[in-house]
User: Fold Spindle pole body component from Angomonas deanei.
Amino acid sequence: MKNLCETVLPVADAFLALQRVEKTECCSKSLVAMSLGEVVAEVSTSYAHEMTKLQRWSEDKTMPLMGVVSEVLRVGQHMVRLRQILPIDLLLSDTNATTTHNIAIQSSLLGTRILNNLSEQSTKYSGSKQDEELRSLILRRALVPYLRMLHRWMHEGILEDPFGEFFIMEAYEPSARSSQQHAISNTQRRHVLRLFPEAATTSLGTNDNDTTTSAGQQEVLAFERRFSINKRMIPSFLEKPSRVSKMIFFAGKYCCLLREYNNTLPDFGESSEGILVWADIDDLRQKIQDTFEIASNAVIQLLFSPSVDLMGHLHSLKSYFLQGRGDWVVDFLDSADALLSKATTTVKVHSIRVLLQGAIARACNTDPYHALIGCSFSNASLMSIVQKMLQEKTDAADGDGVRPSGRLSTGEISARSCVDLLQLEVDLEWPLTLVLDHNTIQKLNNIFRLLMSIKMCERRLSDIWNNNEVLSTFSSAYGIKHQLVQFFRQFLFYSAHFVLEPLWGKLLLQVGQADSIFSLSQALQEFFEKVEKGLTLSSITRFKSLSKIIDISNQLCEIGLHSSTGTTSLIEAALNSLEDSFLKTLTELASPTGADYAQLVTLFTWVDFSGFYGRNRVYTVHHGATSGLAM
Assistant:
């Protein structure tokens, strides 16, 4: 008798455990746990109903104990299996939390842990078809609220997550600005900036000299990132490959952008409801990818629409950052030459900005976006920025953290001339900064600052040495001046015709064929990588050599400015020393080493177009490396 009764104890134990789970359904802080509680309630109700029927039947008829036990085991087998499959400890963990903090943490992770447990069990084969069906049923029912959150996020960009179970989190939204000026435009920009605050600073470095920033930039700096991914809460079936969770994240972000920017959503068609029904993981991943592609394509269409005009802005940026139209540069240097040679501490950036915008307005008045361009003084030299950029690439490859930025100190900034720290700014409209973000503008500024420094050197050399009768008596002066001027002119010609123009044409082709934000970003990344190689910005050793040549040019200009106060012998010795230093530095610059040498063969060929450096063994061009810039 005792042994017979013990056979039904697992059923009783399962019933009691599931009853506890059922009771926690009402007070649970997890939609997934609540959904499982509904399943348990249905099974428990069915079991109780069968037991009631058995009791009534036994009251009318006498039943042997063996028959009662057999009937209990038959009816309660689902209770036992459900008890074995369900993560009871997890489901009851809510009630064991003792503090508010613990409750919040356990509740937010509870749904993910339950789904991970059920997903892991569903991949195991027990050999029983009934067990497989039960596991599939439980997983499908537990996923119902989670898939609803996933669907709402990916198709509307709305987080409906009352208990914080979803792996995407939304930060607190600050209140609207008190100023109502330009209300419609600023409302649109305010909505989007909450999504993409990393794109807020559309110029490189805000200097204390310059307190004038756009309303959009001020708003962006006041907000933290609105949406973020909590990697701890990504369910195991969405964790690998990592692109799945990223597609979910960006699809919802794009929908939120479209909804809040122009009150539209992509047309996902009838298949959008399919994501609410669980079939298997492969089917879900395919639906996620399809949804992401539709949302991404909608953003692409917005970017290329006349109201945003990405292509028009790209053409505009080329005219200024890459100096595609040099007439405004000449006009600007003519009017601002005296200011650009002074230290930044003695010049107000507003004075430079007025001259720059005036030159742009006169030369580029047909460009509809020319009024968006401004300027400021950077808080770091170009050498510091290039060093930091290359160090970050090295750290990323090695898995190390980002090292200090190496900003200039106040003393170093005061010693810098305006042309050394001058950078452009552009006040872009949203959502252009999805693509033309802070990093893109920074890289464009690196190119602009390099070209501007070289143009300024070539200009000063020509002005000082061609108009100085005293210096014309020194034969060595003509030699070093001529070599430097030719080097700078050949560098500018090479950079325009062999680097920037061909690579820009390829970039526009890739942008026109892009079908996602990622492909746009990839096209820009490839463009900058090749431009940096072609302009010596990808090698710190080679860029130091180029910077040293610029310094030699500045020293030569200083000699020209103070030639009337120096003795002939001292000037002659200084000129000879500078020429020796230039030739030595040129040898270092043209060293046939490094991954970027193949890109620079054309430059070294144009610099030595007469064969002078080859005959004098300054450097030899290794044409076998490549015949031109690798495209």
The longest strand covers residues 373-377. The two ends are 88 Å apart (CA to CA).
